Amino acid sequence: MSIGKGIPFLDLITPHRELEAELMDAVRGVITSAMFIGGPAVQGFEREFAEFCQTKYCVAVNTGTDALRFALMAAGIGRGDIVVTVPNTFAATVEAIVQVGAIPLFVDVDPETSNMSIGALRAHLQAHAGEQIKAIMPVHLYGQMCDMDAIMALAQEYGLMVFEDACQAHGSEYFSKRENRWLKAGSIGKAAAFSFYPGKNLGACGEGGAITTDDETLAQRVRMIRDHGQNKKYHHLIEGYNGRLDALQAAILRIKLPHLQEWNEKRRKAAELYNQLLKEVGGIKTPSEHKWSRGVYHLYVVRVKERDELQRHLNEMKIGTGLHYPIPLHLQKAYGHLGYSQGDFPVTELLAGEILSLPMFPHIQKHEQEQVVEALAIKAILQ
Ligand SMILES: *Cc1c(COP(=O)(O)O)cnc(C)c1O
Fold first, then answer.
1. Among residues 237, 258, 279, which one ends one of the domains?
2. Which candidate, 268, 227, 220, 265, places its Cα nearest to that of 245?
């Protein structure tokens, strides 16, 4: 069988080639105006992204990690406070919690969705009642929504704030029975964080991030925190940071944002095709999606027993794959001080050994997906 030219895990070239003329114009506009920090590009993007997320406010910052950090800080979460989250996420979720002085309390994930387990959350909140728990940080991993009605109900019961890590979920939707309508990721909790790292569903040509919220006071505080704690030049009301989104990235994001919905739909179509094609292949578990979730497939992650072998095989066939994430955060050296050990989160640990992210991007072609599935099928037969 011919290997062909291979299939990348992610194609960042094609979308930029398609928009090249507009992107160059936007970049030229910022350079000729010399408004590099703040200004109309940043304000315009904030307005448009808030509208996309159906929130009142969006504050653009320099990374998704700072978006998480600044949201917690602005809400007054700090030293000694406990924030409940999952070990099955990217390190940034926990960095943000630890770096504001708070303590992450992990709960395991659901084996079907890979997202925060509601049963585990409830059990932990009961077991730790009376402790300094202040917030829950659910992560909409792979662009699939967490069960937000249940999380919001528990937050209400225990008087906690909810911060959505929506860094992989630009445009994901959740059907809320409480509100009887579809809600956008980033519009449900007290505030949410988005990342515009180039590989995300909406990516900058560099670093970028944003906080969305309906809370005016929180939005104002984040605006100060990202700008050295100033509300006016040289009037530092609080200790802040240099965490602004620069105007070049904002201008670029404004060109891409109008395409996001279409790109997300293409990802959903590609996911459907994978689901269909992979039905024929034994031993591969495709991602499941609840009726209440309309995910945006930032990643398409299957589960297989002989994962490492299969990944090696795909690699030999020049098919790009990824592992999101191979080592759960509670087992990372950097978080040894939290005192967790192997066996504490069995579902997360099981997933870490079985997950495999297949090529997924809006411009992936049907024949490329067929090639991926064929490569998987050959291996399955040989086993
Ligand atoms: C990408 C990502 C982040 C961090 O975003 P950066 O912009 O890279 O700082 C945080 N959480 C999750 C789940 C992510 O995927």
1. 258
2. 227
